[in-house]
């Protein structure tokens, strides 16, 4: 049994936090003693933590101020391996591990397209972290764990990070027995009593997710009865709703907020759409595929191309092209719902928790052996 520590900012509703919670459970299933440490506070994903996983909260006002407290914790508690997630947390963890003499056991991970993600948050501390991270990645003893080949290559191509400074491990998106589980009951009224085709998307209401393009594409569909639901929270809620009003589709469009069971909603839909401008390895796309529901995705950097086998599993369309997106959605709504269903499910199976746990244990200095 190995003692493992996963370091996060908090347990908010983001994909990285969700995946680290799932990874903690999968690593525990593999026979390890796992602790989740939050630099600041808890969050919505705390409800999903495996009861066998230990929890520590440092209650720092900001991640950047957590270095002393984290260094003390690392000195007082010996772990066989440490894993940090997200760029600004990685920088904090590197500083604390250096101060505590535990740098040799630290592994950091990149969850998104670095060259794109660095422009998202304008906060000075975050921008500073993105400036420092590539230099630190060259100096630390263990390679950066990336969630896809695209994320790894982007880090190498756009920073001073070298090929030997990166490695790859898949996200633990799905339960090991996902094929045997029937989907839950959807909560949305349009999916509970479906009278017309329904398109579903899931994600933060942020520019990265391209929901403005999806709404534009939705308005261009020839069928006036199709409905669109986007599950998620974020700063663009009002802007997206106003766009739907301006395009005359507000009566067929809904922003119901965060859903605790996206698989149930997607499984009942007629099509799932990933409209992102960039990603790392889109978990929502994998989850949608696992239900067998038809999917359409943008050919965004990075992840969809790998997950969808260059478009062999499901359509890939250009980023920021509402016409192409509308055409692809129309085709999927026209085809029999079960067309290529098994191929979607089989492709999603790569991301089961047990397999992901092994790839992470291998990345954590060969701890799976």
TrEMBL record:
Keywords: Glycosyltransferase, Membrane, Transferase, Transmembrane, Transmembrane helix
Transmembrane segments annotated in the record for this chain: 81-104
Protein's UniProt keywords contain Membrane: yes
SUPFAM superfamilies tied to this protein: UDP-Glycosyltransferase/glycogen phosphorylase (SSF53756)
Molecular function (Gene Ontology), one example: glycosyltransferase activity
Glycosyltransferase subfamily 4-like N-terminal domain residues: 14-173
Entry-linked InterPro entries: Glyco_trans_1, Glyco_trans_4-like_N
Top-level taxon of origin: Bacteria
Gene3D superfamilies: Glycogen Phosphorylase B
Keyword match Lyase: no
Glycosyl transferase family domain ranges (all copies): 191-343
Pfam families documented for this protein: Glyco_transf_4 (PF13439), Glycos_transf_1 (PF00534)
Official protein name in the record: Glycosyltransferase
Organism: Pseudomonas lini
Lineage, uppermost ranks: Bacteria, Pseudomonadati, Pseudomonadota, Gammaproteobacteria, Pseudomonadales
